[in-house]
Specification:
alpha/beta, Metallo-beta-lactamase, Chain A, Rossmann fold, 7-stranded mixed beta sheet, 6-stranded mixed beta sheet, 34% helix, binds MU-OXO-diiron
């Protein structure tokens, strides 16, 4: 078990998963992911969430080790998604006297995932309810759509610990050496990004609590400088850019659009833009491209026309931006088409359906390979982006 200290009486029992190919079957996690779970030792013992079924054996052994022969009184379920709830039936069967503590939505969802008798085993809680373990008191706050409707967070009053469910989580195993913000942003935007308003509502509730430690369900336990992490969440959930910069996202079939856009990146830099990030959407990590589009204040999309539609990786990119509520940005469009360019019109239609997007002129049309006139237009577009 990883040696992770929360406090003397709140113990980490989670597991790293470094072998998973794709988290949620879509996200590359080169440094793995952690499924966090905790045990609170007191007169009564509470287990805080379970883990993914991929680590059942290791997790049950971790729990058993810290219990030192005792039996848990409660399993608190903050979130029903299988990466955390996957072992509820396993632990419920192992400790038949243990009660399950959660809100009614969780208990209505439980039988959809599991097949065991809940009679006499549930403790139903609602907003603000408390549960005493002895010296520790748990208080429950509903967090609907952060990131499922049944989600809640639990605040432990005596040690001021917030068990924040998916909130403040990140990709990466606990020993991953990487910036918290980069993988937390990629996690947040792609997984919870659609639910900015609900995250803001939860942050308002959290602001009324005196929080010393945040225990998320993924990634490191946060003990210092909590204002930094909360500040990032306030920005991300408001859909405001985090910093000034330009993302150039390109969908190229034979490389002509890509070469034109790589030259465009140079033009932007020559004109003085310091923060330019280029993505080849056919090859680069899609979740990172989406995350970066949220990070910076300006976005340039460039796509080849394909069967009178968008090249599929651009369609995928724009589809993700749309369902994740992308908004409040300046956007420039470059299209390519050898005989009937359509990509510009289709990309424009995507952005017209989003909130507060400023489309910049000119929309540049390349026919097969960028010519001198195209580069003049790209220079004009660069000036508009930098104005
Ligand atoms: Fe990490 Fe929504 O589960």
């Amino acid at each position: 078990m990883k040696d992770v200290t929360v406090t003397d009486s709140i113990l980490y029992v989670g597991c790293d998963d470094k072998d998973i190919d794709l988290f949620e079957s879509q996200y590359h996690v080169p440094n793995g992911v952690s499924y966090n779970s905790y045990v609170i030792l007191d007169d009564k013992i509470a287990v805080m969430d379970t883990t993914d079924p991929r680590v059942t054996k290791e997790w049950l052994a971790n729990v058993e080790k810290v219990l030192e022969g005792r039996t848990p009184d409660y399993l608190v379920i903050n979130h029903m998604e299988p990466d955390h709830a996957g072992n509820i039936q396993k632990i419920a069967e192992k400790y038949p006297d243990m009660k399950l503590v959660s809100n009614p939505k969780v208990f209505s969802m439980l039988p959809q995932f599991f097949d065991f008798d809940l009679t006499g085993r549930t403790v139903e809680v609602k907003e603000g309810d408390t549960l005493s373990l002895g010296k520790h008191t748990l208080q429950f706050f509903l967090a609907p759509m952060v990131h499922w409707p049944e989600a809640m967070v639990t605040y432990e009053q005596s040690e001021k610990v917030l068990f924040s469910a998916d909130g403040f989580g990140k990709f990466g195993a606990l020993d991953a050496k990487e910036e918290w913000a980069d993988e937390a942003r990629r996690y947040f935007i792609n997984i919870v990004g659609k639910y900015g308003a609900q995250v803001q509502a939860l942050l308002k509730k959290a602001a009324t609590l005196d929080i010393a430690i945040i225990c998320p369900l993924h990634g490191p336990i946060l003990k210092e400088n909590l204002g930094y992490y909360i500040g990032k969440y306030l920005t991300w959930s408001s859909y405001e850019p985090e910093e000034k910069g330009i993302v150039v996202a390109c969908a190229s079939i034979h490389g002509n659009t890509r070469r034109a856009m790589q030259r465009f990146v140079e033009i932007l830099k020559e004109k003085g833009e310091k923060n330019v990030v280029f993505f080849d959407l056919a090859r680069d990590d899609m979740a990172e491209a989406i995350s970066c589009a949220y990070r910076y204040d300006r976005l340039v999309v460039a796509s080849a026309t394909y069967d009178a539609n968008l090249f599929p990786c651009m369609e995928d990119f724009l589809y993700h931006l749309k369902i994740k509520n992308f908004q409040n940005r300046k956007v420039a469009i470059v299209e390519n088409g050898s005989w009937a360019p359509m990509a510009g019109k289709l990309m424009k239609a995507y952005f017209e359906g989003m909130k507060n997007i400023e489309l910049l002129d000119p929309l540049v049309t390349i026919k097969s390979t960028a010519n001198e006139k195209n580069f003049e237009e790209l220079c004009t577009l660069a000036d508009t982006l930098l104005a």
